Amino acid sequence: MSYAISGECCADASCVAVCPMNSIHPAPGEPGFGTGASLFIDPRTCIDCGACADICPVDAAQPADRSAPDDVERNAAYFADRVPLDGLDLDAWEPPSYETWGGGPRRVLVVGAGPAGMYATRELLLRTTAEVTLVDRFDRVGGLVRFGVAPDHPRTKQIISTFERIVQHPRVRWRPRTEAAGLTGYDAVIHAVGAYESRRLGYPGECTAEEFVAWYNGRPGATLPVDLTGPRAVVVGNGNVALDLARLLLSDERRLNAMDVSPEVRRTLATSGIKEVVLLGRRGPEEAAYTQSALEELLATAGDRVDLRYHARATGWTEEGLRLDTGETIAAGNLFSAIGFAGRPIDGLPFDAERGIVPNVRGAVVDRPGHYVAGWIKRGARGGIGVNKACAQETVMTLVSSSRGAVSPGS
Question: N or C: which end of the chain has fewer CB within 10 A?
Answer without folding.
Answer: N
